[in-house]
Amino acid sequence: MIQLLFGDVRVTDHAVSPVLVLKELDGERQLAIWISAAAGAAILSALEPESVDYPSTHDLLVEALASQGALIERLNITSAADGIFHAELSINGMTVTCRASDGVALALRCGAPMFVADEVMADAGVTQAQLAAGDEWPESTADEVEQFRAFLANVNADDFDERS
To answer: What does UniProt give as the signal peptide span (predicted)?
Structure first.
């Protein structure tokens, strides 16, 4: 497993959906995961102070787990197929499957480490140099990589929506 760091949730006029970017801790590769606007908001809200007046569903889940002595220990992104990333949360030694975006939203709230399977990073991970060079990618990820290339080629700082 390869440890990941949160990179960003990018929202631009050029992309149909927000893009969650996770970066390899000890490397140059990144994972680009297309997510819904609601998932993007849930992830970004994890980086802001918790709202006591109006906690999100993710905040509620973390609080409910904590009230029972449960701890989210880690997030593992285990596989990817057809642009869909599958993940598992480790909670008190037990495994719970989840969407990658929900897992990231929860891991960020708890400070839990995030990991990706070596084979997923090998298949779907990209570097800036590879994107710039236009390297060939396996057919299973060609569409996602092409979308990511187009996104990076057309994005500029003015395109970003501040924490929406």
So the answer is: none
Does pLDDT of 138 surpass 70?
Answer: no
**Residues 76, 103: Cα–Cα separation, whole Å:** 8
Domains of the chain with CATH codes: 2-156 (3.10.690.10)
| HEC string for the chain | CEEEEEEEEECCCCCCCCEEEEEECCCCCEEEEECCHHHHHHHHHCCCCCCCCCCCHHHHHHHHHHHCCCCEEEEEEEEEECCEEEEEEEECCEEEEEEHHHHHHHHHHHCCCEEECHHHHHHHCECHHHHHHCCCCCHHHHHHHHHHHHHHHHCCHHHCCCCC
